[in-house]
Amino acid sequence: xxxxxxTPDPQxxxxxxxxxxxxxxxxxxxANRKDLLLMTLAEGTVVGAVFTxxxxxxxxxxxxxxxxxxxxxRALIINTGCANAGTGEAGYQDALLVCQTVADQLKLPRHTxxxxxxxxxxxxxxxxxxxxxxxxxxxxxxxxxxFNAAQAIMTTDTVAKAYSKQVSIDxxxxxxxxxxxxxxxxxxxxxxxxxxxxxxxxxxxxLLQQLVKEVADVSFNRITVDGDTSTNDSFIVAASGQSAxxxxxxxxxxxxxxxxxxxxxxxxxxxxxxVRDGEGATKFMSVVVEGGATQEExxxxxxAISHSPLVKTAFFAQDPNLGRILAAxxxxxxxxxxxxxxxxxxxxxxxxxxxxRAASYLEELGQAVMKKPEITIRVVLNRGQAxxxxxxxxxxxxxxxxxxxxxS
Length: 408
Known about the structure:
The chain is α+β, with helices and mostly antiparallel strands. It has helices spanning 59-70, 88-106, 127-139, 146-152, 205-218, 253-276, 295-307, 309-317, 323-330, 363-370, 397-404; strands at 19-24, 36-41, 46-51, 75-79, 113-117, 161-169, 172-181, 194-199, 234-239, 284-292, 343-346, 349-353, 356-357, 374-380, 386-393. The chain is 33% helix and 23% strand. The two termini are 20 Å apart.
């Protein structure tokens, strides 16, 4: 079960003018489940995007990059059940055919279609159900379909992930709605999963692209489940431009920052939802590293702790074997780190100082914290003013079971 994460209420997911969504059960991998999503974007919509840095990136990622370089998109097509990664030229041509089929249905140029896939790697797309499903999804397009869209992109997720927010800028309401999928193969190297956020704001395209990178860095790039960067990671923000607010550009930075904070809230919720729904997760952990000389070294320490299987299994077992955290700090790569000058806390419990066990620490105090479903691991480096937070989860027996049985 996901850690303190409930199924979103469809009534709380606001439609975005200019954005329509169609969902169908195409039968890509399993029968009787939503597995294909078509999202259409009104003319004038601008899109910002970031993609996986995995060199074995999937065919749809390659095509998305090519199509975004050619034109602003008019539609997105997303399938679950097959990643279309590690499929060579044949997989590339399959993804192009999917784009062409969508383009024909919508009477648009092929290069205005962005394809996305998620699922098993090293298998080609089952083309017949996908191509037939495109017409089914087109037939049910509407702008109030975000909950079904969130369900349609799930793989090993146990909960649909969606979030909406409205904010007033200069008295004009702006709406932001997003969905994401992810539970395993989660490690940041841009934005680790599939995430789609839409808004009705008008914004200059280059400014939106800059914003997407900034938002990814403080949300999706601050999560890890298992340290594996997917071949298919994609994060998209589409701005339909249908609000009454004047265009946001470099001359409207006050409005830009209000919008940025709202977008970060939506993206951070979705990013944390992925960790809360990590495969087999029973704990949601915030790893806070403060007092660093640089932001980069804070992240080094935070990710070293967050990636450690020894740390993650100890938290699942509720075993305060906290020397594992000290070991991770020590191998994080800060070569001039003075370990006698740092402190380690579990929530508010001081565990370690002066290079060893804190005089006030009792194991029963640590064990009491580790029984909680949400825990903060805080490291104070005492080297400067920098601070960073990474969100992660524990490793349970179910993580192994889910991934051992992934293709069955």
